[in-house]
Specification:
Blueprint (H helix, E strand, L loop, with lengths): L3 H20 L9 H10 L4 H29 L2 H14 L1 H10 L3 H16 L21 H7 L8 E3 L3 E3 L1 H13 L1 H8 L6 H16 L1 H10 L3 H21 L2 H4 L13
Antiparallel strand pairs: 1-2
Helix pairs in contact: 1-8, 3-10, 4-10, 5-6, 7-8
Length: about 260
C-alpha cells in the first residue's frame, strides 16, 4: 500500500496539470465594452466550466457532506465540537510556523510557536485554546499566502472539484501544504501515518462545514447568484488574509480591538 504522502504528491501534480490545462482553455473575451469590463472585473475566464464544477460540489455537499455535518452537530455536544476544532487548529501550527518563517516574519512565527507549545502542554494536546485567553489569538497562514507575500499574483478564479473556490496561486499553495505538512511528515517518518492523514482530512472538512453551516445556508437562501457571491466572498477573504500578513509587524502585533472599540463581522 502506498503511503498517504504519495497520494498528496499525486494531488500536487494533478493540481498543476489541471491548472495548466484549464488556462489553455480560456473562454473567448467579449468585444462589447460593457461586457468586457465585467469580464475583466470577474477575472473568471473559465466561468462556464467553473459553474459546472460548482454545481457538482453542491451536489456532493447536499447528498453527503451536509447530512454528515448535521448528524455530527446532532450527536456531538458543542463543547466537544469546540475541542475538536481547537485540536485540529493546533495540528496546523507547525505549518503556520513554517509559512511565517518563509514569509520573513520571525516574530509572528515565534508567537505561533508559543501558541503551539502552550496549547499542546497546558491545553491537553490542543483540545483547549489556552493561548487565546493569554493574548495569543489564532494565526491562520498557508503557502498560498506565502506565495502572495513573495509577489506571485493570484491569477484567474478557479472552482476545483471537491476542494471549492481557488485560483492558480492558492491551488498550488494548497497542494504544497498537503505534501509538506510537518506533522504528517513526522508521522510518516515514524511509520504511523497510514489512515491518520485521511482521518484528519475528513475531520477538518466536517469541522469547517459545521462551523459555517448556518452562514452558507443563509447566503444561499438570499443570493440571486450563489456562485457569484461565493466567488466574491472567497476573494475578499483571501485579500484580507494577505493584507493582514503584509502589515508591519508592529501593526500585526497590536492587540485586537474589543467589542467596546468597534463592531466586527
Amino acid at each position: 500500500m502506498r503511503s498517504p504522502l504519495f497520494f498528496r504528491s499525486a494531488i500536487l501534480l494533478a493540481q498543476v496539470a489541471l491548472i495548466g490545462g484549464l488556462l489553455t482553455a480560456c473562454a473567448t473575451r467579449p468585444t462589447d465594452p460593457e461586457d468586457l469590463a465585467a469580464y475583466q472585473q470577474a477575472n473568471d475566464p473559465l466561468e462556464p466550466l467553473n459553474r459546472h464544477i460548482f454545481n457538482f460540489n453542491r451536489g456532493v455537499d447536499f447528498w453527503l457532506l451536509r447530512p454528515t455535518t448535521q448528524l455530527y452537530r446532532f450527536v456531538v455536544p458543542a463543547p466537544v465540537r469546540e475541542a475538536v476544532h481547537n485540536f485540529l487548529n493546533n495540528l496546523d501550527s507547525p505549518l503556520v510556523i513554517a509559512n511565517e518563517l518563509l514569509q520573513g516574519n520571525p516574530q509572528r512565527a515565534g508567537r505561533a510557536a508559543e501558541r503551539f507549545a502552550m496549547n499542546t502542554v497546558v491545553g491537553i494536546g490542543g483540545l483547549f485554546d489556552v493561548a487565546a485567553k493569554n493574548n495569543l489569538p489564532p494565526i491562520d497562514d498557508d503557502f498560498g499566502q506565502t506565495l502572495a507575500i513573495w509577489g506571485i499574483g493570484d491569477g484567474p478564479y478557479l472552482m476545483l472539484p471537491l476542494l471549492g473556490p481557488s485560483d492558480p496561486r492558492d491551488a498550488t499553495g494548497l497542494a504544497v501544504d498537503y505534501v509538506a505538512d510537518p506533522v504528517d511528515l513526522y508521522l510518516e517518518r515514524h511509520g504511523v501515518a497510514d489512515g491518520w492523514i485521511y482521518a484528519r482530512t475528513g475531520a477538518e472538512v466536517v469541522d469547517a462545514r459545521s462551523n459555517n453551516l448556518k452562514t452558507f445556508d443563509q447566503i444561499e437562501r438570499t443570493s440571486l447568484d450563489y456562485y457569484a457571491v461565493v466567488r466574491s466572498l472567497y476573494r475578499q477573504h483571501r485579500t484580507q488574509q494577505i493584507k493582514a500578513n503584509s502589515e508591519p509587524e508592529s501593526a500585526a502585533a497590536a492587540p485586537a480591538p474589543t467589542k467596546a472599540d468597534t463592531s466586527r463581522h
